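Two entries, shown back to back:
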Amino acid sequence: MNSVKHKAGSRRGSFLYGVIGALLIGVSGAYFLHRYPIRIPVSADAEKAASFVLKNDGAQVTLLVDTSVIRQNWAHKTLSRADFSYGWTNVLQQEFGYFDIREISAVDSASLAEYRIVVYSESALKGLAETPAMTKQLVEYVSAGGMAVLDYPSNEIIDWFGLASKKNRDERQRLSRLELGLFLGKDLNARADGGIPDSLPVFSTIRNYGSVASGASIEIQSNSCFEYFNYGAGGMLLTKWDFGRWVTLTQQGLPDENLNTVNRYADLGHSDKLEANDLVADSSYLNSVYPWVDIVEKTLGNLIAAKTFAPRWHTTPGASSGIFMMTHDDEALGDVGAWMNVYESQFGYTSTSFLMPSEKLSSAGVSAVTSNGGEVGLHWNRFDRDDKASLETLGIGRWRPLVRRRNLSSQIAWLDSLDVKTSYNRNHYFLWDKDPYRLFRNLNAAGFTMDYSYGPDLNDKGYLFGSAFPFYPLDDNGASFELTETPVTWGENFNGADSAWIARLLENNASDYHGVINALYHNNTFAWAPDYSIYESWRLSYELAQGSRHVMYTASQLEQFITARSTSPINWEIDSESVEVYCDATQPDLALIVPMLDLYRPTISIHDAGMSLSEVSVIVDSVSVMDSAYWRIVFPKGKYLLSFERSSTSREEGG
């Protein structure tokens, strides 16, 4: 009996010890999983391809495209066969603001005649070459007084118009050295005799190049940049290289032949990851104070204005000379990172802060940014490694046995939990995919409207992508995304971006380019590298921007300005004695610029019924764009009618 009891007690004891052991193992396992959670895979971010935008808004400037040709060429998924017709949207967005985009097949002679300036893109020229009726339309359009811009036309098209034949050679107008000098800006006369350099360091990809590493200079002395021809009562301006392609592959970056990002500049110290600067088309751009794309685009705009009357919205608002943006990246510093915004607000400055997911950041930290005049964007962390700021723990209560990297949707949800709604992004470390188009497809699917992920990291400064004005990236289907990219111009004092360099950058922008200068200062830089010169350049950059008449913009203000330029109508009528311009400024401080050639000072009347000129404040002054003189008329919001009388000495009379 005792033996039976002993066995039963032994079984109960063993069971109890087993339960205790299991509990200890379970608690230890739970603690271990809490301390070292299991990593689970993250779901892929949604992608949404760009779509072709066509618009017929009644503008008098239009871009003609053939989307079927564009799709066909991009279907090969090789760079040399791709069609960059939609790169012209960025040219027209910067230079005119308000313009149409039409299918060439949808335009007949009557509708073409409504336009003052027509750009025939690469794809449109193919349709032109294959359809005699379209060629006839162009002949009639230019002969009647229109201005046609042809993107790198073939020799066959040139021959059809007799532009190179002996009969018309005397009417061929070669661009003067003064006009070609518009490429150079005011301080680029590098030769000892003060003359124009023989060539420009502008990367040019041609239609059927063999190697993506090959580059060519656009020659100045041989005048192979642009060519203009009188034709009937109008004119034709020919780009002498593949202009839409060059603009896109300089602004957006140059991938390899198979449309992949390559580690082009691994010697800069970031060989473990792909960054935006790996897309830079030419190494000479890595430290450049010259926005080469803007220079060439503005040269084109000035040439058009020199040959035909072409009013357009200026690239900067009001009487300002440029736009200055201060931006900050939060590297998981959390609530205390708002110190820069708090400090800036004491001096009346504003900025845009890109925030990273972190347990250190709360609604209070976000409020500290926004209540001090700052705006908020996402600092999208795309690292695959176990970066605490980018990891999301999963479980019940405080027990979190699972962990996964936050994808884009999760990081957006994290911002939502802090009552932050934003459509602005900047990649952490400017990190890039092998597929350089995926970033924009991800942002497009998530509803973002502006990105700031292009520009120099720790080893570069300046206009790496040749542009100081927001541009619309293209997808690998040839279509344009409806979100803009604004490149960073410098970060902290990296690679010599000190106050003297910043002053030179702002002064050049104020006098010639009139673009967006986008500065980056991290809120934890002073913990990384405590250096008074960084503090000084941060403070002085605001003062230098104000001293050079730059207006301070946040991300939302820049977006509103871009939208207003593209949705505010401009139309004009020309007769032998005068020109009348109608414009509808959809927001205050839009500035209309009109070439001074052959024109007196404008007279202005109010187009809206019931208003008088005394009720509004209209500023009329002059502005120089790459050494070309324009009237600048700054309006309050409203509709206006401007009259310009022709000078007694006109171009047609030899003046």
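entry 2 starts here
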Amino acid sequence: MFDYKHSYAKPANLGGDPKLAKLLGTVSKMGVQIDSAKDKEVVLVIGSTGAGKSTFINYLAGRKMKLDTTQMDDAVVCDNPLAEIGHGMKSHTDRPQLYQEPGSSLILCDCPGFFDNRGLDVEVANAIGIQSLAKNSKLVKGIILIVDRASFLSGRGQTLELTIQSTLKFLGPNLGKNLDSVMMLISKVPNEKIKPFYKAIHDDASMLPLCSEILKRGNVGFYSPLDDLSPVDGVFNRGNLLSKINKFKGIHDSENTFNISVSPSAELEITGLMSLISSRVRSHLNKLEFEPLPELLKLAEILAGMRIDRVQTESEKMETMVIDQIKLFEFHDKGAEHLSNLKKIMPANYEKTIVQTLMRVQERLEKEKKIAAEAKKTKIELENSKTAINDLTGKQKSLQKDLESAKISQQEYEKQNKILQDQMTKTAAAYAATEKHMEVLKNELSDAKNEAVRTRDFMQQQLSEAERRADDRIKSLQSELERKREESSNSNGESIILIHPALLGGYPRFSPMGGLGCGPRFY
């Protein structure tokens, strides 16, 4: 796992990729917030855009709320808000925001609206932020789902159903273990509608199992930031809410529990980003540009953590590619230097490969060094043997002159000449053996280098083929994403919804028949 305080500090140059640079900028901003949640307990406030999450956070923090009737539609506002309140159906929050009132131990996280209405970039950033927060806080103490009255009444309750589906998927496979720490609050319900609303939810809660299970725990109810609701069953005031939250036991294994629901188009976008990261990592390694690698690999780790099958497949392919690129440095002229630099900055999952490759480089260099030293010694031996042969040849000539000038007898000449011949034979044999050894050393060094070149060329060929396939995947993903965008625009703006597996069994749906004033009735 990356050290987030360090890795968020200075965004690196990502080589002019605007998408990656934008994503890194967003993640860097979120990092400051995420760091503040380390070793602390956090309550997530979730809900669809416009449900009133920011308003709820200000209310829970004790801010004085009031009704502003000067706007086109009455709106709840407050002075000196802890969380800035947005009005209308455009989400005001583009990433998780953490709020802590001075003197309070409670940290509230305003999570971006589910099914956000500002495009794929925001949807991806939101998903990353929530996932990172779950991984890095000490404990996610609980979850508060804010649902407004309009969610029940509009489109036969379709907005509510989508919110519930999204929440079910968000809570993942550990849903049952965590319901004691989940609360559902319904906002914007007037006094006269509280009792029929509450009765309908109790009578027909089988329609939404999530509501039913939370109801059993007494954690479904109504609230108003203006504290203008009558104190009847199901109505919570600020004191009730704080008491409930303090009793939350915490989300079981939150790092592996939360499953951020994103649209199929966003899945494609994230997969494309992972492929683009892989391409940039490959390029930077080839160009020996190591500075951007930690940031790129950090982004890859975050994207892979979202547990999207295609993204994880791309992540695995990227890791294999990086490992092969690292191994290739074994045959680089300055391989040891580059590997030492990579060891300082690469994530822990690459350390074993770097260390093993560095050891092989050092072994090869040590072997070449020994061969070179031995070749140097052998060269000196050759030169000494050649000098000795020249000396013996000179002595033979001098001996011949002594014989010719009668300085020595024939007998003495033959005796000394035999000694010189024996020395010459031995020296010539030593020279030949040394020369042969030198040839062996040259061949050994040449074979080692040739084998290294062959291995390097083979690995480069394999990497080139992998690069070609990766580039083809990026093009294919881009084409698929364009098709999805066209399909989405041709469907009159209808959202593509990921259905929670539990819903495939056929939960009852809304009925347009009476109930709750003009809204739907449950059956």
